[in-house]
Amino acid sequence: MTPARRVVTLPPTLLGEDAVRFARDGQRRGADVLEIRTDLHAPDAISPEALAAVLPLLVSERGKPLPATWVAAAWRVDRDLMDASGQQASLAAPPGKLLASHHASRQLSTEEALQLWERELPADALVKHVEPMTDPAHLVTLLETQRRMVERFGATRVTVLGMGAVALPTRALLAQNNVLDYVAAGGAWVAAPGQRLLDDAVRALRGADRSTVAPPLRLGILGTSIVHSRSPRIHRQPFDRIDLPEDGPVEAVVDALLPHYGGFAVTSPFKLRLAKHTGSSLDAINTLVRRGGRWEAFNTDTFGARTVLERLGAREVFVLGDGGATSALRSVAAELSCDLRVLRRADIQAPLTGAGVWTWPDRVPAPDDLRFDGARVAVIAYGAPGRRIAAEIVRRGGTPVLLGAAWFIAQARRQRQLWESAT
Predict the structure, then answer these.
(1) Contact (CB, 8 A) for 379 and 325
(2) Contacting residues for 141 by C-beta, under 8 A, at least 6 apart
(3) Could you tell me which of 362, 361, 394, 365 has the C-alpha nearest to residue 377?
(4) pLDDT tens-digit readout, 254-312
(5) Which of 113, 108, 130, 117 is nearest to 62 (CA)?
(6) What is the mean predicted confidence (pLDDT) over 37-56?
(7) Does the N-terminal peptide bond of residue 367 adopt cis geometry, omega within 30 degrees of 0?
(8) Gene3D superfamilies from the entry (predicted)?
(9) Crossing angle for the helix pair 250-257 and 139-153, nearest 10 degrees?
(10) Which of 71, 90, 253, 348 is the most exposed place for a label (fewest CB within 10 A)?
(11) By three-state DSSP, how is residue 316 classified?
């Protein structure tokens, strides 16, 4: 199967030369196609000819008509099967350029989806079917819809996509048999919820290219605000960064993905919830490993916790927060003859001294009255979140000790060993 072409969409804030620079950056990082949409850019805000000189151009009609100059420069012209009133719309496009698409307003059964595609299409037209995903279990239906559409139109023409807060792993699986893979370039703006990052999609493809045997079961990381996670960069591919809302249905997500993934890294805020969901005897877990028809849960954070407490080298350590990381610290503290004092927000009254560990995610604001009196405070986040936490510690009178990478590497080595045993 030929890998899907990776499509990035031009953000609405980029015009003129900035748009061309975006296209060049996307090409350098592995994008294959640039999409421009009529709902995002005015006809004269960009130069389709200049953009098409960098990447093949996909022009998409969304609400406003496509300018003739866009169509002339395009590699493909995306027109929707239906108009706003639900009637069949015009699919006019130059020969060899049509991409017929449909964006459903709700989840459809496979039979409902196929009925939409009874319309006669040119033999060289690409077809794209998109549905919202409110239920992670809808993955099964979308995979069947894709299979049936490939039977009807051929393997070189079909793209099926899910869209929504829980759609990312579904899109990763569908991409294996899609013609186009719509991905996010990065930053705060995305063309549609549920898109994978371009860098992750490229990394996964390169990992698959190195495989000399059948593709392995996928791996992934589950968390909230995990754009800076290093896990996709150090573990074997394909490894998906599955960023879910804090109140997202993570339990239903892991259940739906059981047939397709060999394991997951689990990070904040899902360590406690998935421990309960999997029936683990642990208070918090950070690793799931597939064992036939079930998930087995582990907490390799204990390896990271041990490393951090050894590096701090203190007999008494305060801990800010009482989540999954704190559970790991508790489990190893006694072995290291370390007395832990776990502080919740309401417990913090006087300036803190000595040595401590900050376990709150950087997206969670610290209490206003938190102060340090020369305390050494271990930071177990890394990357930009770790730097932000370190700056906050300094602002409040403490000395940050950056141990996020040490924690991460220690626990990740153990995760890798566990995933290799997945069945």
Answers:
(1) no
(2) 107, 108, 109, 110
(3) 394
(4) 999 999 999 999 998 999 999 999 999 998 899 999 998 999 999 999 999 999 999 99
(5) 130
(6) 97
(7) no
(8) Aldolase class I, Leucine Dehydrogenase, chain A, domain 1
(9) 40
(10) 90
(11) strand
pLDDT (0 to 100) of residue 216: 64
d(CA 390, CA 373): 15
Tell me the two tokens of residue 141: 């239906």
Q: Give dist(CA 232, CA 383) in Å, integer.
A: 14
Query: Per residue, what are the HEC states of 214-272?
Result: CCCCEEEEEECCCCCCCHHHHCCCCEEEEECCCCCCHHHHHHHHCCCEEEEEECCCCHH
pLDDT digits (tens, 9 = 90+) for 209-232: 554 455 567 999 999 989 888 888
Q: Closest Cα to residue 394, out of 366, 368, 371, 414?
A: 371
Under the phi-then-psi rule, with left for phi > 0, alpha for psi from -120 to 50, and beta for the rest, what region is 194? left
CA pair distance 141, 139, nearest whole angstrom: 5
CA angle 202, 204, 206 (to 5 degrees): 70
pLDDT at 236 (0 to 100): 86
Extract the tokens encoding 357.
Answer: 């560990």
Task: Give the domain ranges of the chain.
Answer: 5-207, 215-298, 302-409
- The pLDDT value recorded for residue 243 is 94
Mean pLDDT, residues 406-412: 92
* Residue range 379-393: mean pLDDT, rounded: 93
- pTM score: 0.86
Is the predicted pLDDT of residue 334 greater than 80, yes or no?
A: yes
Distance between CA atoms of 259 and 230, rounded to whole angstroms?
A: 25
pLDDT at 417: 93
Rounded CA-CA distance 13/232 in Å is 29
Q: Identity (one letter) of the amino acid at 357?
A: V
pLDDT per position as a tens digit, 310-323: 999 999 999 999 98
Sign for the pseudo-dihedral over CA of 105, 107, 112, 117: positive
The residue-averaged pLDDT of 46-72 equals 97
The predicted pLDDT at position 399 comes to 97
DSSP codes, 143-183: HHHHHHHHHHH-TTTEEEEEESTT-HHHHHHHTTT-SEEE-
Residue 189: in which H helix or E strand, if any?
none
Contacts 24+ apart (CB under 8 A), 404-408: 404/379, 404/380, 406/304, 406/307, 406/308, 406/311, 407/301, 407/304, 407/305, 407/307, 407/308, 407/380, 408/230, 408/304, 408/382
